[in-house]
Amino acid sequence: MCAGDDVNCPEFERHRAKMREALGMERRSFLKSAFVATGGAAALAAGTASTLVTPALAQASAAKAPDQPSYHYLPANDQTVHWGYFSKKLKPQVEIDSGDIVTIEALTHHANDDASLMIKGDEGAESVFYWTKDQKKVARRGAGDPNDTKLGGGGGLGVHICTGPVFVRGAEPGDVLEVRIVDTKFRPSMHPDHKGKAFGSNAAAWWGFHYKELLDGPREVITIYEMDASGARNWAKAAYNYKWTPQTDPSGVVHKTIDYPGVPVDHATIKKNTDVLKGVRVPIRPHFGVIGLAPKEADYVNSIPPSYTGGNIDNWRIGKGATMYYPVAVEGALLSVGDPHASQGDSEMCGTAIECSITGTFQIILHKKADIAGTPLEQLEYPMLETKDEWLIHGFSYANFLAELGPNAQSDIFGKSSVDLALKDAFKKMRTFLMTTKGLTEDEAVSLMSIAVDFGITQVVDGNWGVHAVIKKEIFADASV
Amino acid sequence: MCAGDDVNCPEFERHRAKMREALGMERRSFLKSAFVATGGAAALAAGTASTLVTPALAQASAAKAPDQPSYHYLPANDQTVHWGYFSKKLKPQVEIDSGDIVTIEALTHHANDDASLMIKGDEGAESVFYWTKDQKKVARRGAGDPNDTKLGGGGGLGVHICTGPVFVRGAEPGDVLEVRIVDTKFRPSMHPDHKGKAFGSNAAAWWGFHYKELLDGPREVITIYEMDASGARNWAKAAYNYKWTPQTDPSGVVHKTIDYPGVPVDHATIKKNTDVLKGVRVPIRPHFGVIGLAPKEADYVNSIPPSYTGGNIDNWRIGKGATMYYPVAVEGALLSVGDPHASQGDSEMCGTAIECSITGTFQIILHKKADIAGTPLEQLEYPMLETKDEWLIHGFSYANFLAELGPNAQSDIFGKSSVDLALKDAFKKMRTFLMTTKGLTEDEAVSLMSIAVDFGITQVVDGNWGVHAVIKKEIFADASV
């Protein structure tokens, strides 16, 4: 019998719809049970000395949350995503309480690099990418003019498909939002020939750090990678690559380069090369390039440059088991998730990672301003990452570019970044962290940073370049502070 | 009975000399037996697919070496070190054959920050640092004027005490020298109160990246760290710190800042603060900041900026178990070792690591130009690091600053560096490595770099700033290339 995978079956469409529904339910159910299995809400009050949340703060925050956390599921479709920007003006997609669990589907904005592998048959993705001469379901893509006709709505000033925002009840400016990444799952391909696989796209694009140095002249190259959708196989492999050719979008605009997100690539115009990276196994590092809150400084903020409320940090360590802390800038916090990656190296050299749709499950905990006073989170003015063994601080060329660069911040930032500036910012933030959280003097903090903190290049392709500073928790296991 | 540790014994001096001699013999004997235990020469021909040395190359190189490797011991004393510079003019301290094992004592140039802990009673260190009004045993410190009277001989244009050079018989320009770090041992303190301990100094100095950003105004701070000399304890702890005060050297020159290496700090002029980093455990990462060959471009080369022949790379991964590959620039290669560190973080933020004397044992293998043709080492024009699991490429702001910056290269380099430039160099070198060693096309190499290569900040304090690119070997375990 046709299980929705036999195009010759007379009832193919009905069977396929049924399969998709079953798949969706299975996915939701699986994720829910996975959450329960991991201890669910029990973790909420488990603040220990090894986290930035003191036991007293954990208790204070838990006391303000419902006794039992609720579970929410936020699918990705044309109604639940905003494309290419953050905005404090957005209508929340879901309202949650502190402590609640939310599963959020995140779609890669590069799925149209091979629609047959990453969109076709996937109801949510199909609705988001839907674009014909007469209708473009998600019309605005970017923080620019919503009616821009040169490239398309939003002007492509921002590229990430963001699911959300999630409104956290009670969240106000000055609070800190803790986001625990409980789980990540690849979004399986619906291609009948590729059951159990997931696909992603790496674009070596004009905004890459490598671009001006190319030996064989300027070109943009897409490489499609294949993953085991279960995540059991810990490596990805290249499927094929092709050079970007001018693509005419359904509205008739020609895109000579990758200058607007979600342009469908007509595979009749490109030349597939399957002789690519033979036998090379790329270790997977599933994570979200974008998790962020709405900034307060502007109504519409390009999703590309990361800032003090997070966003496009592009650190591959922001994956399963990690916890992020963000300063809340607007009422409800307005959390959105996007830019999922199957893997990325520190620097994101060529402009993108393996861009691959992923569904994440998050526990979200609100820490009120009054409660964080005197705790390690008190002076948190930047997005901070905690893993099992490490604390990571994110420095940017401009810590808050919207506030620092004035009215033209959103365009100026793209010409002003350097790794040196981002390193300076990471140094300053790590110094603050060591002095406030660990009670060190400036001299102690400076010495410790030179001998025990590793500074790495997060990315040099997101307008506001990033450097992360890593310090091991074990360093303080015995410290009195 | 006095074992050389009772200053009240009438025969103290004789007993002490005996103890030192015994200690020295014990150290040499221990290191020799450690070498034999690790398999010694058997490793020489063991080139496998997981190293850059192909089995054929290993065989060709072994065929040119003696059947049995010899063992050499190079102590550090006023006769065996050159201070602050590399030079092709130096008389070799030892001549070896390819495959030989050399144990080399390396002294930290910061030992005089606390002579009682790091010099006194240590014959070799005492001879190197010996400096009275009438005699300075190692007079030249730096690549500058050997008779400079403003700061001292050599002008302090270069600071590292380098032991060597080691002359490798048969080495010629175009060859590659493989340096395997077989072992590292802390140099124990001779202070009678601190048996079994080793000490190091961290100087937060004017050349640090942090310096202009200090909250409490400009100052240089020395922090002394204590290690377990056996290396069994995997962490260091701070002993005390003090602010640098103007120091008058034995020749009468006043050093308001740390502007000349080896100036004895008069502890009567400083204020020790022992309330420092209480309970903080710094993970140890014993390594050599400086291992390098003599460059061909100039007669005397400041030891601070790293370059294509290595030198002051300051990557903490250059420790026990690691292998370095260097392009040979002059006859005999002229390898020197110095700047030992107990630990350092990526960036070496404040200007120094935990600067701590260490004795290393190395196996040194020469690969001739004719034999490396067609192997991964063929186009090696930069210092490369191989660890058990990774290959690391070192990028610098200027890959070969001596050749690129002209006659004033040695001074100009200090004003021209940026992390951005070093990242670009690391990108280009990693691309070359992937294309030549792994046979990838430029498009494959660029994509792989974005998704599987981590770029980190090696150091931003050595004039020629560094970025390292890390790629895991397992990526290619299954590859046909």
TrEMBL record, chains A, B:
InterPro entries: FmdA_AmdA, TAT_signal. One of its GO terms (molecular function) is hydrolase activity, acting on carbon-nitrogen (but not peptide) bonds, in linear amides. PANTHER family: FORMAMIDASE C869.04-RELATED. This is Acetamidase. It comes from Terrihabitans soli.
